[in-house]
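Incident log entry.

Two folding requests arrived from the same account within the same minute. Monitoring flagged them as a possible duplicate submission, but the sequences differ. Recording both here for audit purposes.

Request one:
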Amino acid sequence: MILVLRALGVGDLATAVPALRGLRAGFPDRELVLAAPAWLAPLADLVGGIDRVLPTDGLDPPAWPAPSPEVAVNLHGRGPRSHRLLAAARPGRLLAFGNAEAGHADGPEWDDDEHEVRRWCRLLHWYDLPADPADLALLPPPAAAVPAGATVLHPGGKVHAKRWPAERFAALARALTDRGHRVVLTGSADERDLVARVADAAGLTPDAVLAGRTGLAELAALVAAARLLVSADTGVAHLATGYGTASVVLFGPVPPARWGPPPDRPRHRVLDAPDRTRIDRARTGPGGVGTPPTLAAIPVDEVLAAVDEAERAVRVSGAVAA
């Protein structure tokens, strides 16, 4: 058995897809077990090659299966806690970044500034295992009763500092509706009030509010069939990358160089608030206070321009394919 730890969220699992597929290719005859939150199981099915999910809540010690795994792979973090958690499963071998505090001298050095996809591919390459950072496509989701061709706006995100202001999302929804887009709003059950406020301010009908009404499999199906997605740097943006759905992703304070879509895919557009803040600080001079990195620096008209660019890229790629 190959035991892999990635007990995080949607975006974390989506960015680990190339590494997980590399492990499947490197150990084709072994059972591949993913230690991750149970609610991520529908997304694990869309990765392909994962035999089962072992429910794991963060770094709380789960009941490790017997017998001990032949190999344990830390795709969760740099350690030491995640290293020690896997070591408790008594694997024959641990594949992980080097961490002296955890007593793990093997493995490459951690790089804080590395893109999340390339980080885990580099780890596998260190151990002579294949991993292609471009292999991000997800398998087709199961059929679901979701609107096809909708423009999906996702106002929320579990990190509040990464959210674009709700009134901007409302203004964007109005503008896109005026352009003929069928706009729907997604989010978690906890974000339903936020999404309802956006819908009310945008003049959308209640049936446009899908927050809390879609499971993970239905959300994947919605994004896969969508015309466009606009969101902050959060898990749903990685679903758009996985399905090649045109997207505009708003970044800040974490830079897209660490979590953004591949820069060579023009249908995925990025607007980076931290870049704008750095420019503002440069203009104020060495003694200038500047402003904190915030998505409020990104105006609606720039998002609309990015929407045009993403949709233009889709049309161009369609014409080339024809």
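Request two (distinct sequence, not a duplicate):
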Amino acid sequence: MWPYGSMKPEDGPARMGHEFIGIVEDTGPEVTTLNRGDLVVAPFALSDNTCQFCREGLHTSCTHPQAGFWDGEADEGGQAEAVRVPLADGTLVKLPVEADSALIPSLLTLSDVFGTGYHAAVAGGVTPRTRVTVIGDGAVGLLAVMSAKRLGAEQIILMGRHQARTDLGREFGATDVVSARGEEGIEAVRELTGGHGTHVVLEAVGTMSAYQQALGIVRRGGVISRVGVPQYEDAPVGFGSLFRHNIRLAGGPAPVRAYIEELMPDILDRTIEPGKVFDATTGLDGVPAGYQDMADRKALKVLINP
């Protein structure tokens, strides 16, 4: 949504989309693990899955010359009839279901939003002894709630202002909801935590105001884990903000490829249903209107059936 918000009509149309499931129609001569007819999910980052960083679970830092993000691939995008996938052996993951499976919406979240929410929780060090605040009631924030619940967090406070979304957040595991923002929101979270704040803050927005809110909420010795793409370069990290009370800053672009095999079984056995974040469906012709609906908060996340 950040690139969409910065576009101007006079710039003309653009191919977009970095979350997709598809059927392999053809493969190049160097592809060895995939065949025509395979149903696959594509992470939002291209990687070879073999370099030292990939082996360490950091696929978003893959050193292969063709590695990178879908948004950097000229004339490509997942919201299309077809897409060419570089580094297919490393990037794509086979799915053990049919293309018409009812699990497709949930499996699609493995390409980004579920893996990103999970990365926030993992990078933040969420455990059964952890109190967590999630800032943002978009798809990533809601699935960060699900992820914190999966990791056993004892208290999960969701900060959001849209009741349909926060109701889904409660279904996913939120124990409390705070609709206020700024100082009022910070005070509300502190009241819920005995005045101390939470051990971990999962920041799924990316604005400076969200970061400042996280600073006000995090407990001494705690962690702010950011997965909302920062819309700023400079932020308070000095003595009075982070250093004085041993607050750590974590997060980053989620290496979702590293989490797919871990998270998929819970989807396949229907233990969880992250696909509930999709609350609207459209065809390719409806993509522009779908973006507008998400920007206007009329839709949480739109599923596209080409």
